[in-house]
UniProtKB/TrEMBL annotation:
<comment type="similarity">
    <text>Belongs to the class-II DAHP synthase family.</text>
</comment>
<comment type="pathway">
    <text>Metabolic intermediate biosynthesis; chorismate biosynthesis; chorismate from D-erythrose 4-phosphate and phosphoenolpyruvate: step 1/7.</text>
</comment>
<keyword id="KW-0057">Aromatic amino acid biosynthesis</keyword>
<dbReference type="Pfam" id="PF01474">
    <property type="entry name" value="DAHP_synth_2"/>
</dbReference>
<dbReference type="InterPro" id="IPR013785">
    <property type="entry name" value="Aldolase_TIM"/>
</dbReference>
<dbReference type="InterPro" id="IPR002480">
    <property type="entry name" value="DAHP_synth_2"/>
</dbReference>
<protein>
    <recommendedName>
        <fullName>Phospho-2-dehydro-3-deoxyheptonate aldolase</fullName>
        <ecNumber>2.5.1.54</ecNumber>
    </recommendedName>
</protein>
<dbReference type="GO" id="GO:0003849">
    <property type="term" value="F:3-deoxy-7-phosphoheptulonate synthase activity"/>
</dbReference>
<keyword id="KW-0028">Amino-acid biosynthesis</keyword>
<keyword id="KW-0808">Transferase</keyword>
Length: 450
């Protein structure tokens, strides 16, 4: 039997249209936006509401300290790079990191890609100037193209449809790999060996040896590795473009309730989390687990008000606060937020994004981050939670599975000169494959108390 939504629910889903919405493209032809979103409304959902419910339960476990979230992927996915190789490398990186973290934390790791829909970007400036020429900023492949010509920078709503199709092919490949045997723990473990065979990572030898022994122990005990061949991997992106997110919001026929069916998990960015804004209103009405980014200027009142608005019933797993304070601020700012939110009896899942508070410009002009600073924020995040007796629930990371050179440092010492070698991101710098693994080893080591 199919349950329909009440008229109030349907009406509520239109309310965002009357509210201020930051960071929306200036579409030159509003009729073309209507045409594109009408078409989008006829497309099938990309995820099933029941999957989002399962994820909510798992995030509730992370909030209680019974699981750990690993969320990672590009700052901005691009259509050009939604290829099998790039997607496979990202999945592999996330699975490898997850295996190391599972060992370090002795907890199940919830795997989630910033993938299959991460095609829209908020920007600090609406415009970009190069050599005296000023054009609209690049806002992600769902909006305009990165090329620096007037034509390419014009927002084109047909890109919303392309974003849907690219998301569909990406999630299809994620499902194929993770249910088809690619995630086999034995294989994942082999990849880890490749990493530790590199002398640059000698300091992780002890931990790698322990993981080896654990695998041998499991084998000796007769663990059925074939039963462990499939893993659940979830998709997520920033719910930024309201035309897209609203068109992908559908009524679950089992419950008559709305779900955003563009991804399992969506988050509201630091720049669009106004309490009286359109993003908060639309997302308050869908049933998916939600994230909200919290930067260093967030007050405890802001955090509490967001929790009350987005999670009025205080449902465990519904709300994840993704804090991105910067390594220099996390130890000062985070305790006040965590204390107050928990003190009010709120259950949220606390996750660390060590990327967005630590962005710098290198002397040669690259937007980059220092690996050591990124790691320092992760350490600060754990220290704060340990001191307060609260739960560090996960990590949110910008990464790629390829050998790019976008973040400075790490054991392989990407330096200023190396940035020019393979700087490929269109927006923010990502950890490369090795740096991602190194982060996982570092965090696992910390969790093991080495
Ligand atoms: O994640 C993305 C960026 O941090 C955000 O879009 C702002 O980037 P910008 O300062 O380059 O515009
Ligand atoms: C823009 C992003 O983050 P924030 O909203 O935290 O700045 C992002 O995650 O790419
Ligand atoms: Mn980013």
């Amino acid at each position: 039997m199919s349950i329909e939504a009440s008229p109030e629910v349907l009406e509520g889903l239109q309310r965002w249209r009357e509210l201020p919405a930051r960071q929306q493209p200036e579409w030159p032809d509003p009729a073309a936006v209507v045409r594109a979103t009408e078409e989008l409304r006829g497309y099938p959902p990309l995820v099933f509401a029941g999957e989002a419910d399962n994820l909510r339960e798992k995030l509730a476990m992370a909030a209680r300290g019974e699981a750990f979230l690993l969320q990672g992927g590009d700052c901005a996915e691009t259509f050009a790079e939604s290829t099998a190789d790039r997607i496979r490398n990202k999945i592999r990186t996330i699975l490898q990191m997850a295996a190391v973290l599972t060992y370090g934390a002795s907890l199940p790791v919830i795997k989630m890609g910033r993938m299959a829909g991460q095609y829209a970007k908020p920007r600090s400036s609406d415009l970009e100037t190069r050599d005296g020429v000023t054009l609209p900023a690049y806002r992600g492949d769902a909006v305009n193209a990165h090329g620096f010509t007037e034509q390419e920078r014009i927002p084109d709503p047909r890109r919303l449809l392309e974003a849907y199709h690219r998301s569909a092919t990406t999630i299809n490949l994620i499902r194929a790999f993770t249910y088809g045997g690619f995630a086999d723990l034995r294989e994942v473990h082999e990849w880890n060996r490749g990493f530790t065979a590199n002398p640059a990572y000698a300091r992780y030898e002890v931990l790698a040896g322990e993981i080896d022994r654990a695998m041998r122990f499991m084998r000796a005990c007769g663990v059925d590795f074939d039963a462990l061949r499939t893993v659940d991997m979830y998709t997520s992106h920033e719910a930024l473009l309201l035309d897209y997110e609203a068109a992908m919001t559908r009524i679950d026929s089992r419950s008559g309730l709305p779900y955003n069916t563009s991804a399992h998990f969506v988050w509201i960015g630091e720049r669009t989390r106004q309490l009286d804004g359109a993003h908060v209103d639309l997302l308050a009405r869908v049933r998916n687990p939600l994230g909200v980014k919290l930067g260093p200027t967030t007050t405890a009142d802001d955090a509490l008000a967001l929790a009350e608005r987005l999670d009025p019933e205080n449902t465990p797993g519904r709300l994840t606060f993704i804090t991105r304070m910067g390594a220099g601020r996390v130890r000062d700012v985070l305790p006040g937020l965590v204390e107050r939110v928990t003190g009010e009896g709120r259950t949220v899942t606390w996750v660390c994004d060590p990327m967005h508070g630590n962005t710098i410009t290198s002397p040669s002009g690259y937007k980059t981050r220092e690996f050591a600073t990124v790691i320092d924020e992760v350490h600060g995040f754990f220290e704060v939670h340990h001191a307060l007796g609260t739960v560090p629930g996960g990590l949110h990371v910008e990464l790629t599975g390829d050998d790019v050179t976008e973040v400075l440092g790490g054991s392989e010492q990407v330096d200023e000169a190396a940035l020019a070698r393979r700087y490929e991101t269109l927006v923010d710098p990502r950890l490369n494959h090795q740096q991602s693994l190194e982060m996982a080893f570092d965090v696992a080591e910390m969790l093991r108390g080495h």
